[in-house]
Amino acid sequence: MPTHVITGAGSGIGAAVARRLHARGDEVVLHARDAGRAKELAAEFPGARTLVGDLSEPDRLSWALSHQSPPDRVDSLLHIAGVVDLGPVGDLTPKTWRHQLNVNLLAPAELTRLFLPQLRAARGHVLFVNSGAGLSAHAGWSAYAASKHGLKALADSLREEEHADGVRVTSVYPGRTAGPMQAKVHQQEGKEYDPARWIDPESVATTVLMCLDLPEDAEINDVTVRPGR
Ligand SMILES: NC(=O)c1ccc[n+]([C@@H]2O[C@H](COP(=O)([O-])OP(=O)(O)OC[C@H]3O[C@@H](n4cnc5c(N)ncnc54)[C@H](OP(=O)(O)O)[C@@H]3O)[C@@H](O)[C@H]2O)c1
């Protein structure tokens, strides 16, 4: 059975992906921000292993993982966790910038570095859930969009670097997807939130599984998913 390390499995898109992989009998190793959250995930996904580390502190991830038992085999590393905080550049403080850059960009880079030996050995797959904001930035979105533009650069460089070792790299760019993050975005935009207007996280999960399940002769580099309504 393939082994998938998944961040963000506690909510939204990450939870939908984790449920699908777990239901079909794949090994899932669920990353959680702290021990309490890891316990909740372990209860929700019987048989799943967990790893603990706060993505807002990428400098500490290496130390945190060295005190746990990371899996020996990793067929895919799915970077799905993320945070968003809107605001005009004139109002955004370094703290707000740093938090989004840490969780959305530096932590994925660091986790990738830490799991690359296993990924190379398995000729595995690194998949980044990016965002439409990783391709174009709009007013009010600077810090989040910068973190996601950076995530695109990370994925593109990694793909070139690791191609010879057979590691495949995919970026998925969803548009607005229903869930807690989108509810927060609407609140910050001062708009009414209607989840039925936006992509179902299950549809993004379907896209992620399609990328993972493609046979080894091919790799999906980038895929954009937009609301269909
Ligand atoms: N929702 C959208 O409209 C949309 C659109 C485009 C792209 N995306 C991207 O899709 C991904 C998933 O979004 P979503 O809508 O599923 O978001 P979500 O429901 O808010 O879930 C975010 C996940 O990230 C985890 N997380 C946040 N900060 C963390 C930290 N410091 N350490 C460890 N884990 C942390 C959360 O952990 P807890 O469960 O412990 O809170 C949660 O599981 C994100 O990368 C987002 O940028 C979302």
From TrEMBL:
It comes from the Bacteria. Gene3D superfamilies: NAD(P)-binding Rossmann-like Domain. One of its GO terms (molecular function) is oxidoreductase activity. Coiled coil: none annotated. One of its GO terms (cellular component) is membrane. The keyword Oxidoreductase applies. Residues 2-201 form the Ketoreductase domain. This is Short chain dehydrogenase. Belongs to the short-chain dehydrogenases/reductases (SDR) family. The lineage of its organism: Bacteria, Bacillati, Actinomycetota, Actinomycetes, Kitasatosporales. NCBIfam families: PRK08219.1 (NF006073). SMART domains: PKS_KR.
